[in-house]
């Protein structure tokens, strides 16, 4: 094969500000910029978004597979949900042209919400993104299309011509919603005299903190209604005192293994025979 000399190709510069060992706990923030948050969003939202809320999805670092196969990710934050904690980092203002640019914490799973002037959510990102230390990343808007080029405005965006904004933290700080932090102290203060220890109403509903399941205390399990996984939730005929008084929405209290729910609420006679008589896939049930 004939060979000949050629010019050395250019080396792409590293866009990450890798921290030294002494700075590894405080890496340089990255920058996220969008020239128009309305690009790809429903037209009804045009000019209504005033702030971008930035959230961090906490990591899941271990598993409960050996204890409860269908609630397998830890740390478990709810007996109903196996999802991760979404921590509100704060908000940044959206410019009048729909652009936004802000300094983002690196190496974290981030997702966003468009907010109106009263900080009410208009649209929520259903995935997540992030930046490396010192990295600059951009997007064309909410739900950007992969099949068409973004709209090109004339000149730079307002946010792009300014220094990136800093995230304004929420007034309540960095704490997340927590049963132990916010609910349990109120139960102890206002209900404990009668419903704990030697209280006269203890036999009606015992709020004494005692071990339950997966780190949750027994009163928490009773108040949430003792949710079920992998099957439809059925309230017992003779519930124990206090069962379900929290009004928990059983978001995981349904099964997904039976194909019949697909046709619930549908006119069975209107379904084509080819679909109605299709072979069903049998999946194993939960391991008890």
Overall average residue pLDDT: 82
Distance between the termini: 65 Å
The protein's oligomeric status is single chain
Number of helices: 4
Fraction in beta strands: 15-25%
| Adjacency order of strands in the biggest sheet | 5-2-7-8
Q: What is the strand tally?
A: 11
Given helix and strand content, the structural type is mainly beta
Helix content: under 10%
Helix-strand pattern, N to C?
A: EEEEEEEEEHHEEHH
Domain count: the total is: 2
The value of Rg in angstroms is: 26 Å
Instruction: Please summarize the sheet with the most strands.
Output: 4 strands, antiparallel
Tell me what the structure shows.
The chain folds into two domains: 21-161, no CATH class; 178-288, no CATH class. It has four helices and eleven strands; from the N terminus they run βββββββββααββαα. It has helices spanning 179-190, 192-195, 218-223, 273-276, and strands at residues 30-34, 51-57, 62-63, 73-74, 86-93, 100-104, 110-115, 121-124, 136-139, 211-213, 216-217. The strands form four sheets. It has a four-stranded antiparallel beta sheet, with no helix packed on it. The chain has a three-stranded mixed beta sheet with strand order 6-1-9, with no helix packed on it.
Write a short abstract of this structure.
The chain has 288 residues and is mainly beta.
Structural key phrases:
elongated, mainly beta, disordered C terminus, four-stranded antiparallel sheet, 288 residues, 11 strands, three-stranded mixed sheet
């Amino acid at each position: 094969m004939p060979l000949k000399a050629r010019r050395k190709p250019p080396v792409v510069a590293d866009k990450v500000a890798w921290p030294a060992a002494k700075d590894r706990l405080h890496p340089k923030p990255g920058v996220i910029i969008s020239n128009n948050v309305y690009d790809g969003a429903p037209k009804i939202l045009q000019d209504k978004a005033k702030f971008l809320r930035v959230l961090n999805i906490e990591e899941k670092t271990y598993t409960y597979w050996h204890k409860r196969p269908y609630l397998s990710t830890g740390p478990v934050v709810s007996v109903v949900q196996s999802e991760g904690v979404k921590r509100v980092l704060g908000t940044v203002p959206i410019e009048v042209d729909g652009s936004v640019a802000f300094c983002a914490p690196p190496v974290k799973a981030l997702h966003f919400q468009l907010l109106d002037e009263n900080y009410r959510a208009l649209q929520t990102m259903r995935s997540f993104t992030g930046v490396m230390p010192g990295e600059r990343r951009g997007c064309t808007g909410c739900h950007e299309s992969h099949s068409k080029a973004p709209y090109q405005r004339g000149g730079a965006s307002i946010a792009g011509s300014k220094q990136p904004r800093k995230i304004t933290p929420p007034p309540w700080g960095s704490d997340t919603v927590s049963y132990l932090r916010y609910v349990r102290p109120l139960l102890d203060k206002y209900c404990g005299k009668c419903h704990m220890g030697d209280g006269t109403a203890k036999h009606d509903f015992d709020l004494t903190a005692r071990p339950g399941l997966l780190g949750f205390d027994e009163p928490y399990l009773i108040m949430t209604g003792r949710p079920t996984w992998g099957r439809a939730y059925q309230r017992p005929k003779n519930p124990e005192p206090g069962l379900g008084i929290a009004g928990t929405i059983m978001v995981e209290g349904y099964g997904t293994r039976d194909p019949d729910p697909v046709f619930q609420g549908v006119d069975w006679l209107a379904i084509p025979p080819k679909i109605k008589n299709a072979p069903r896939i049998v999946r194993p049930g939960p391991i008890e």
